[in-house]
Design brief:
four-stranded mixed sheet, two-stranded antiparallel ribbon, 6 strands, about 5% strand
Length: about 350
């Protein structure tokens, strides 16, 4: 085989590796699956024209079946960040679905993967040969098929309406933090060394360029990319303030319920990104405590300035109850310092 042939083969192999890595990172960059509107009936959801309930021999479902016994509910999710972060995932949607499964007591296993669903997002569920993408529809499917009784059964129509409105706000906050992570110039190192830690070093610059290009286009289309940094920060401020106002009376959960609702699952997934993953204090204390592979801190102090003491306590409370193996790695003194910082910022603003 000639040297030119070897070069061609080598370039082809590198291109294939880059394509796979870029696809995986692009999926992660979207912070998981999105809550999209779909068909009215779950059994009409289709992939390539086939009813989802008729899907068989899915490669993703087969990968889970090769590892786990039949009749095992499998949550496909990105790998965990360092436990020093105190968060179970950098993806709000992974956290949302995993918290729902934990809060409802639904038996499941977590399968760590970089392979996105048939809809191109993460996380998703598989059950035997069936694949259920998108967190919103996955939760509906779990309740429809009797895997869980749900979290919202005790809500009256007004509470359901309010929850839906706040859920849209939470999605918007998730889009803002995703944009800040991947397209803000000061966060290039965070994206490459923390978010893309699983990608080979040599392809990270290429993958980063591809991902940020796609995200800039997406955020331009949804409107966030058309605003100045100051305007984006003001949007985050107002929405964080609105969520904080729900907690001002000392309630444990956003709707004043005795236990979490699906809104809390979605809200915690996003708010932990602002309160914990955006905190230089959390990062510094974790490094000092000896946690390895923390990467570099997210430079999000500006966009997270709207975090209030109420939101810090909310994130701590839910994290320690439902994700204690992660939130418990943040020392009490660190939590108190993060809350004190939030208090100081709001005293200055007042």
């Amino acid at each position: 085989m000639s040297s030119s042939t070897f070069s061609a083969v080598g370039l082809t192999a590198i291109a294939a590796v880059v394509a796979v890595a870029v696809a995986a990172v692009a999926s992660r960059s979207s912070s998981g699956s999105s809550d999209r509107a779909g068909d009215d009936q779950l059994n009409l959801l289709t992939v390539d024209g086939r009813p989802m309930s008729d899907m068989r021999a899915s490669k993703r479902a087969k990968a889970a079946l090769d590892r786990y016994p039949r009749d095992t509910l499998v949550l496909h999710a990105f790998g965990r960040p360092s436990k020093g972060w105190g968060a179970p995932s950098f993806s709000p949607y992974v956290i949302k679905l995993e918290m729902y499964l934990r809060a409802t007591g639904t038996p499941h296993v977590v399968f760590y993967t970089q392979t996105p669903s048939c809809k191109g997002g993460m996380p998703y569920l598989t059950y035997n040969e069936l694949e259920v993408p998108d967190t919103h529809f996955a939760i509906q499917w779990l309740e429809k098929e009797g895997f869980s009784k749900g979290l919202d059964g005790g809500l009256d129509p007004i509470a359901v309406s309010n929850a839906e409105a706040y859920r849209v706000m939470v999605i918007n906050l998730g889009e803002i933090i995703a944009m800040w992570r991947w397209t803000h110039p000061s966060n290039a190192r965070f994206a490459k060394e923390t978010m893309m830690v699983k990608a080979p070093q040599m392809i990270r610059p290429i993958a980063y360029s591809r991902v940020t290009g796609k995200l800039r286009a997406r955020h331009w289309d949804n409107g966030h990319g058309r605003h100045s940094r100051r305007e984006v920060v003001s949007l985050a401020d107002s929405q964080l303030s609105a969520l904080s106002a729900l907690l001002a009376d000392g309630r444990d959960y956003l709707l004043g319920t005795p236990g979490p609702t699906s809104l809390d699952c979605a809200a915690y997934g996003v708010l932990v990104q602002y309160v914990v993953c955006s905190s230089a204090k959390v990062h510094a204390d974790a490094v000092a405590a000896g946690f390895k592979e923390m990467g570099v801190p997210l430079g999000a102090r500006e966009v997270a300035r709207g975090v209030t003491p109420e939101l810090v306590r909310y994130v701590r409370r839910i994290g320690e109850k439902w994700f204690g193996e992660f939130a418990g790695n943040i020392a009490a003194a660190t939590w108190e310092a993060v809350e004190a910082e939030a208090t100081e910022r709001h005293l200055i603003k007042a």
